[in-house]
Specification:
Layout: E1 2-6, H1 21-33, E2 39-41, E3 44-51, E4 54-61, H2 69-79, E5 86-92, E6 100-103, H3 112-121, E7 127-132, H4 142-146, H5 155-172, H6 177-184
Parallel strand pairs: 1-4, 1-5, 5-7
Antiparallel strand pairs: 2-3, 3-4, 6-7
Amino acid sequence: MKVIVGLGNPGKKYEATRHNVGFMVIDELSKRLNIPLDQSKFNGVYGIGHVAGEKVILVKPLTYMNLSGECVRPLMDYYGVDDDNLAVIYDDLDLPVGKVRLRLKGSAGGHNGIKSLIQHLGTQEFKRVRIGIDRPKNGMKVPDYVLGKFLAEEKDEIQSAIDHSAHACEKWIHHSFLEVMNEFN
C-alpha cells in the first residue's frame, strides 16, 4: 500500500496559492488514477483505490499546513502503513518556480508542514516530491508570498510541474523511488 500526501491549506481562500501546490498534485492524481477524494477522517480528506493491484491512498490534510502531521500519522497507523510507503508533495522556496526535485529523506529545510510531519512520524526518512515556487522578491514577506497566487507568467511552469510530479508518483506505485528519482530529477 502506498500513501501519497499533498500538503496545503483548506478552504477557497487558499486555492491555487503557492503553498497549495501539493493539493493541486493530489487533485491531478485523483483524476488520473480515478480515485475520488470521498472520505473524511483523521482531519483530512482522502481516497483509496487500486492501481494495477496496488492499493493507493491519496491524502489532503485539512489541519492547515503547520499541523499536517496530525492528519498523516493517525491515518498511517490506522491503515498499518510504514514510513517507507509514504510520499509527501509540497512547495519549496529554495527551488526555481516549476522545478521538481525528488528526495528519499531530509530535514524540514524551514518548511513548517514538513516539520510537523517529522515531529509526528518521528523520522525524517520519508519520500518527498518538492515543487519549486522560488523566493519572494522586492522585500515581500514569506508568509504573504506563499499564501499568494501564482503570477500569470508562472502558470504554465507550475502546471508542467504538477503534471511531472503526478507522473512521478504514478511511476512510484510500481517502481522503486530511487528509480523514479533517477528518471525525474
